[in-house]
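User:
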Amino acid sequence: MPSNAIVPAAAPASAAGRSPTRARAAAPRYLTRNPGGGWRFQLRVPASLVAEDSTLAGSRLIIRAQLGVQMIRSAERIARRMATICQAVFAAAATKRVRVMSSVPLNGVEQDLFAKVVEACQAGIAHALADPSEALGFAKALDAALSTLRLVESETSRGEAGAPYVAANAEAMTRSALSDVLRYSPDPERAREALARAPSVAPRRPEAETKADSGERAARAGRPLPTFAEISEIYINVRIKADGAGHPDIPYLRLRRDTFIDLIGDRLVNEYYPSDLQDYVNKMQTWPANVTKRSAYEGLSTQEILTANKALALAPLKRKTMSEGYLANVKTMMRWGMADYSYRDPFAGARIHWPKIYLESTPREDVAADVLKKLFQLGVETGRLVDAMLPLLARLTGRRLALLIFLRGEHFRMKDGAPIAQIAGLVFVKGKWIATPIKTGGALGFFALHEFLLEIGFFDWARRQEGWIFKEAHEYPDPSKWASKTMARLFKKAGAKGGVEVFHSFRGDAIDALRDAKVQGRAARLQAGHALVDEHDKYGHRALSAGERQQVKTAPLPEGVDWSIFSGLDFDALAAARTRREGGGKGKVATPAADMTSGAKSSADRRRKRRKPKASRREMAERRPS
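Assistant: Predicted structure:
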């Protein structure tokens, strides 16, 4: 295959070979560095074009092309031209996608025309890639056609709300744009004939599909179309049966479903449009973040909560929460019945214009050296295992809190002289199997442990344990949630900057440390429990090699920390210590140990010391008033 060929791939290339400084910098748009040097163009294919019934169904999600070694500005210019060319293909494919989603099959004439459009675009791309100096002219020529196709697609998808001029002239505008594209076909004459034979090339307006085709499909399916409330309840019940009623996602799904219905209304699923999502985003601008934790809003309706926070006394949602939380949940629930009830995706092709109030999330930072030092010190001083060892394990392994809290004695073992741990997906506890919170398949593999855990005796102690390592956490209904709150309090006490220096920062810190230790990208992914995305990386054993395990085992420890505080710890005493309540309130305070390095008294001994002796019956009788 020539070096400048378009190569579909599953995901972006790994960060192997980059310097630590460059790895943290934002990559130029449409560009990524080759592991062997030089630049590579890449562009994601819209998800709506890679469904099973799409023309691009055989493609992967990323289109790539080699640009070679050159200055970054030059590579960026070429990448922008390539992006314009590729987007022309996507726009043409979207025309067919609208017809496919409406279940109106393309006839032979339409199929031939669409094939000629894609053929012309692909021929132009191949020519431009072979001679990048001509890419600019081709990109400019397609720019007007691309803009026209986008305009027609956008306005017709809005139905009655679309621009009247575009709706009235959609057919002529689409033909003109496609005619410009077809000039680049290898056989322009046949391409123009295919365009002339097609009776209609403009996208259909959604209301025509809604009132005729959806009803016809529902009749064929033998069942009436559900409302959003009905289909969302079906989805939530499926989740409950699969994950359990206590799964943390369930209340969030109900909350987000209810806000959408309250603000947009409950209709039949074929009566929603992409513009409804924009309306929902606009109306949710004053919705307070963490609303479920605000007792003052308990019992209020969606509109009452929005009105109460109209002055923004409480911070609103961040864009990521709204996009990846609220909108994503609504779209998932809306699409759930498409296969059973044969209706279109009402939100296909939706584009959101984000109001300024939805800010981007503040990126997390590494834990500062002084904070890390104090955090470890405070953790040991509390006298509890979860405070003393959970931050240390997270910093040295890069694994998630929810996974580390489910470590058991049988999960620890030696492999070719290196200590490792491997958390099972299912564990047998008290006569039944329970699932551990495995987020991805990559988390099922073993991860290497640092030799420091051997030196302080923790690894050998952990191997001897029966059951959970952090037993205290499993005395609560949700061990991960309890541990998360415990760690948040410890971080706050250590002076960590809220929201950016958090427990999850240890994950990034550990990955950065692996880069500094020259651990290759594939090994770093395996150690962190991330999925392998590069096809080449998936070959061979999906586990750390003996050499990679030794690299992790002997990696340099972070500087600025007094590591001697972990020497001589009594892990049995740490594991036996528990939280105590002060004043009968909800706040939990760690029971401090006088000296956990020398076998301090147990919590039971301390309770006996504080307990007052009971009075005898004679003494009680003498105290009664006569």
